[in-house]
Amino acid sequence: MPVPQHHIVATPPPFDQPPYPADIFAGQTVLVTGGGSGMGLAMAKAFAQGGAQVAVMGRSMERAEEGAAQIAALGVRAHAMSCDVRQPEAIAVAFDETERELGPIGLLANNAGANFPILAEDISPNAWNAVTRIAIDGTFLCSAEFARRRIARGEGGAIVNNSAQYIWTGFPGDAHSAAAKTAQATMTKKLAADWAPHGIRVNAIAAGFFPHDTSTAGRREGGIAPLQNMIPAGRTGDIWEFGWLSAMTCTPLFGDMTGQVIVQDGGESLRRSLIMPDFVPPRERADGPWGWQ
To answer: Which ranges carry the Ketoreductase domain (predicted)?
Structure first.
């Protein structure tokens, strides 16, 4: 059913009107994993809008460089690197490189991840590892490297993790990602408790649907409208909204908040009622486990 015309659908400010001062991150360096495209790039741009210098880490150097170029266009220094977040030695090298180029890393955004729709019984060990190790191992290894350096300097810092709103419910065709994102959320709370005495805050965004060029969310017949009609807020999120909230958790505006998993999904996780469409088992869905190809 289309969203009725009389329903109020709130829209965000345009991208060039971030909800914090342009110098709130001035003099700080942020490292964004998977920051060359999609949600990671949105995070990186949001930090740049607050004046941070941005290091973009990605598996693909070409994509990282493309993202860094977009970030530099916002008027801040940016540096691109290629790194596999599953390799602790490579992470240490990337941190060293960032600090040589941009100075000490005081902010970290863990976004690197992978996902694809597949029935649980069809997930191979390699496929399972490809998704879970990037999200779980990568988030932990980067966070631990960050924390060791900040503790050694006697300085605090802030970390934000990109989780997902289906961590409490799972999602059809997403056993690998649901497990990984749930681990990220639990890790967020534990790391926050361990590192609070050192002034290091750790939070996560449990993100809903934020369609972008490299995502499959909402790519179905009829465009994005059918997906928006299913969300209580009446629309999917704009990608810069996710970036803004991620960056805001790292600002002094949220200086007393740590260990929190914030749901940003337009109320989609609340959409559980007896008037929902009939359940179709993932294996029987004509358009694949996610309900679209």
So the answer is: 28-227
Q: Which residues contact 14 (CB under 8 A, 6 or more apart)?
A: none
Q: How far apart are CA 125 and CA 43, in angstroms?
A: 31
Q: Of residues 166, 171, 210, 242, which has the active-site annotation?
A: 166
CA-to-CA distance for 125 and 133, rounded, in angstroms? 11
Q: Please report the domains of the chain, with CATH numbers, ordered by start residue.
A: 29-284 (3.40.50.720)
Specify the amino acid at residue 190.
Answer: K
Phi, psi of 287 (to 5 degrees): -100, 20
* Centroid of chain to Cα 110: 7
Distance CA 267, CA 264 (A): 8
Going from the first residue of the chain to its last (293 residues), give the mean pLDDT of each consecutive group of 10, the final group possibly shorter. Answer: 77 92 97 95 98 96 96 98 96 98 98 85 92 95 98 98 88 86 96 98 93 61 63 86 97 97 88 66 77 59
Strands, E assignment, 104-180: 105-110, 157-164
